[in-house]
Specification:
Elements (H helix, E strand, L loop, with lengths): L6 E3 L2 E3 L4 E5 L6 E6 L3 H20 L2 H17 L1 H12 L3 H21 L7 E2 L10 E9 L2 E5 L7 H12 L3 E5 L6 H12 L7 E3 L4 H9 L6 E5 L2 H11 L3 E5 L5 E4 L5 H13 L11 E5 H16 L19 H16 L3 E4 L3 E2 L2 E2 L2 E4 L6 H4 L6 E7 L2 H9 L3 E2 L1 E5 L3 H10 L4 E4 L15 E2 L2 E2 L4 H7 L1 E9 L1
Parallel strand pairs: 7-8, 7-10, 8-9, 10-11, 12-13, 12-20, 13-18, 17-18, 20-21
Antiparallel strand pairs: 1-2, 3-4, 5-6, 6-24, 11-23, 14-17, 15-16, 19-22
The structure holds NADP nicotinamide-adenine-dinucleotide phosphate.
The site of NADP nicotinamide-adenine-dinucleotide phosphate has 30 residues, from helix 7 and helix 8.
Length: 474
């Protein structure tokens, strides 16, 4: 029987007047129905969160930590069911869905640890003349009600990256997951309530960004918006939301530089995974690969062979590498961008074929900087191989982007590694790895149009707390 899900407001599960169908993007089967939140539901969720703040911020940190630790453990026992749900609602290949659940287990665990070490510092007040008799320190206080808006491509771990640090810091959350992938988030919320989260500390409402998302971000009772999604929506939210705190985790067109002195034999298969995992629908997917001309042909041969070996098909098949894109429109957009690039002179080395929402791993060359597949975020299994002669020139091309999330450099030369670290304007530089590398406790986020602020538990907690300065006049 088809599962009907409910939304969570103030610890109570609610149905809605209208239901939204959640569809498996591979076989188009309806896998669940979720209630569409009304404006009244969103209002009730924000009110519940205001009460939730009082409850969770009054809890000692060891209790908040215990809830997060129990959740990490509970999730460990549900890995396979959660991975199946992720694969079914998002089309992500099961093996990557399983890896996502494993990461979410760690994200909760790390949040449990960080909950116990949220602290400020003392300030040497006597550094200012006239303040000799003062003693000062600051505390980190929860910001209050946080609206968390998440995308479809990591339906669990990107939700956890918002909910777990918010709870660790004593905030209450109103979560709006992507309408395409709300089931994992609802399941996660159910498990968190089982672990003893107080009523109102987490509320989940579902509906489109243009309705539910909009009601949330423009509400003055919401103290902070933590958003992961496209730059266009991120910009809109900041204009619409006015004076609030924001964390913006946005898109990119990540690049890798493969030097002749780097291990290009290791780089080629690694970059294939970085280009095509989750059908390229990862903010740190490999989109542009700059390869030193002397090793270009050898790298390209290995890269194309490994790309052709990717198993495309049913995401629930345990051998699958590449499932469908999130929907037909997105696959058609990617096809259009590739066709346009070819009309402008690009060559398809492999792939380029679409069948419904399935888009074959596609490798391009002879690309130009003004093509959409280079200039914009392709967010599809499409990657370009670009030769370079001078290392400086490659770094400049990496930087020639409105985005700045992460970059990768393959080199054995320490001077080149440091030059790249200094010159590339991104949130993270991976030496001898692809830009798709992330562990969940590292500071993670972008510069330029890739975002504002950082996630990664300790850093998200910094964003989700306000400094309260205390000054004693002795
Ligand atoms: P999206 O279209 O921007 O949607 C993201 C979320 O925002 C969804 O929940 C969406 O709701 C909601 N939304 C849409 N319009 C809104 C509005 N006017 N007000 C409030 N909320 C609104 O992004 P997506 O297609 O789901 O995800 C892909 C993008 O996310 C890519 O650009 C990718 O690079 C980026 N991303 C970034 C990171 C990172 O950490 N930097 C990680 C993953 C993804 P509905 O979809 O339900 O309408």
């Amino acid at each position: 029987m088809l599962t009907e899900y409910q939304m969570l407001i103030n610890g109570i599960w609610h149905s809605g007047k209208k239901m939204i169908e959640v569809v498996n993007p591979y076989n188009h089967q309806v896998i669940g129905k979720v209630p569409q939140a009304s404006e009244q539901d969103v209002d009730a969720a924000i009110r519940a969160a205001q009460k939730g703040v009082a409850a969770i911020s009054a809890m000692p940190s060891h209790q908040r930590s215990k809830i997060l630790e129990s959740m990490s453990l509970l999730l460990t026992h549900q890995c396979e069911q959660m991975a199946k749900l992720i694969a079914s609602e998002s089309g992500k290949a099961y093996k990557y869905a399983l890896a996502e659940v494993g990461r979410a287990v760690e994200t909760f665990k790390c949040a449990a640890e960080e909950a116990k070490r949220i602290h400020g510092e003392t300030i040497s007040m006597d550094a200012s003349e006239g303040a000799e008799n003062r003693m000062g320190f600051y505390l980190r206080m929860p910001v209050g009600v946080i609206a968390a808006i998440s995308p479809f491509n990591f339906p669990l771990n990107l939700v956890v990256h918002k909910v777990a640090p918010a709870i660790a810091a004593g905030n209450a959350v109103v979560l709006k997951p992507a309408t395409a992938t709300p089931l994992t988030a609802l399941k996660m919320a159910e498990m968190l309530m089982e672990c003893g989260l107080p009523d109102g500390a987490l509320n989940v409402v579902i509906g489109s960004g243009a309705t539910v998302g909009d009601w949330l971000v423009q509400d003055s009772r919401v103290d902070m918006v933590t958003f992961t999604g496209s730059p266009a929506v991120g910009k809109y939210i900041m204009t619409r939301g006015g004076l609030k705190k924001y964390t913006m985790e946005l898109g990119s067109n990540c690049a890798v530089v493969v030097c002749e002195d780097g291990d290009y034999e290791k780089a080629a298969p690694r970059c294939v995974v970085g280009s095509f995992a989750n059908s390229g629908q990862i903010c740190i997917s490999v989109q542009r690969i700059y390869i030193q001309r002397s090793v270009f042909d050898r790298f390209a041969d290995m890269f194309i062979a490994a790309s052709k070996n990717q198993i495309v098909g049913d995401p629930l098949d345990k051998n699958c590498d590449v499932g469908p894109m999130i929907n037909l429109q997105e696959a058609e957009r990617a096809e259009h961008w590739v066709r346009e690039a070819v009309e402008m002179g690009a060559t398809i080395l492999t792939g380029g074929v679409r069948n419904g929402a399935m888009f074959e791993p596609t490798v391009l060359t002879n690309v130009k900087p003004d093509m959409k597949v280079i200039r914009d975020e392709v967010f599809a299994p499409v990657v370009s191989l670009i030769p370079f002669d001078e290392f400086d020139d490659a770094l400049q091309q990496v930087n020639d982007s409105k985005y700045g999330l992460q970059a990768g450099i393959y080199t054995e030369r320490i001077d080149r590694a440091f030059q790249a670290i200094k010159m590339i304007n991104v949130g993270g530089v991976m030496i001898n790895d692809f830009p798709t590398f992330r562990v969940d406790h590292m500071p993670y986020g972008g510069n330029k149009e890739s975002g504002i602020g950082r996630e990664g538990l300790k850093y998200a907690i910094e964003e989700m707390t306000n400094i309260r300065m205390v000054c004693f006049n002795l």
